[in-house]
């Protein structure tokens, strides 16, 4: 792991891709980009997690 903030893309619960960034702002930009790139896949979910605290900062689609 090279950064505190992890973005993960899963499709129907299976991991597709992930990455780590040291900057939350950079990770949020990557999160938005990956929603745009992979959000149309059936069953897609994109999650941004703070690995230091374990907190999910945001996820798409919004779990409501």
Overall helicity: 10-25%
Indicate the radius of gyration in whole angstroms.
Answer: 11 Å
Biggest sheet strand order reads 2-1-3-4
Total discrete domains: 1
Enumerate how many helices there are, as a single number: 1
Shape: globular
Unreliable segments of 5+ consecutive residues:
none
Oligomer: single chain
Main sheet summary: 4 strands, antiparallel
Query: H/E element string?
Result: EEHEE
Number of strands: 4
Q: Name the beta content range.
A: 35-45%
Q: Quote the average pLDDT.
A: 94
Q: Whole-Å distance between the termini? A: 30 Å
Given helix and strand content, the structural type is alpha+beta
What does this structure look like?
This protein has one domain. It is built from one helix and four strands. A four-stranded antiparallel β-sheet has the order 2-1-3-4, covered by helices on one side. The chain is globular and about 30 Å long. With 64 residues, the protein is an alpha+beta fold. A hairpin with a 4-residue loop joins strand 3 and strand 4.
């Amino acid at each position: 792991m090279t950064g505190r903030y992890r973005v993960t893309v899963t499709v129907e619960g299976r991991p597709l891709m992930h990455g780590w960034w040291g900057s939350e702002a950079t990770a949020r930009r990557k999160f938005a980009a990956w929603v745009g790139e992979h959000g149309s896949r059936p069953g897609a979910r994109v999650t941004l997690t703070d690995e230091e605290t374990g907190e999910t900062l945001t996820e798409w689609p919004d779990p409501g």
